[in-house]
Amino acid sequence: MHTGAERGPEHDPPTIRSPIMLEPITAHCPYCGEAFDTSVDCSAGTQRYVEDCQVCCQPIEFIVEVNMDGSLAGVSFLRDDD
Fold first, then answer.
1. Are 34 and 26 contacting, i.e. CB atoms less than 8 angstroms apart?
2. Contact, 59 vs 69, CB < 8 A?
3. Can you tell me the distance from the alpha carbon of 71 to that of 43, in angstroms, rounded to the nearest whole number?
4. Number of domains in the chain
5. Does residue 39 fall inside a structural domain?
6. Is residue 65 part of a domain?
7. In 3D, which of 27, 73, 26, 24 has the Cα closest to residue 47?
8. pLDDT of 19-77, one tens digit each?
């Protein structure tokens, strides 16, 4: 007898996720001054995080500002010891 209570992955509602909006940028290390390419995820909104310099491995604080429409407004790079 089928009670209708059985559910499987094919019957589960789809999970709604924000699309990842990676924006390529060129970062400038505040320690060694070298530039390197990376990307920021604009779907996460305005954020602060630490990423190591790809050249000298020092920790850089990224401050990412995102507009209301999800577009990248700007990125600042600070020394982690500031």
1. no
2. no
3. 9
4. 1
5. no
6. yes
7. 73
8. 778 999 999 999 999 999 999 999 999 999 999 999 999 999 999 999 999 999 999 99
The answer to whether residue 72 is domain-embedded is yes
Helix, strand, coil tally for the chain in percent (to 5):
5, 45, 50
pTM of the predicted model as reported, rounded to 2 decimal places: 0.71
Strands 72-79 and 59-66: antiparallel
79: amino acid identity, one letter: R
Question: In 3D, which of 30, 23, 37 has the Cα closest to residue 74?
Answer: 23
CA gap 71, 44 in Å, rounded: 11
- Does some domain include residue 68? yes
Question: In which domain, by residue range, is 63 found?
Answer: 44-82
Give CA–CA dist 45/30, Å, rounded: 23
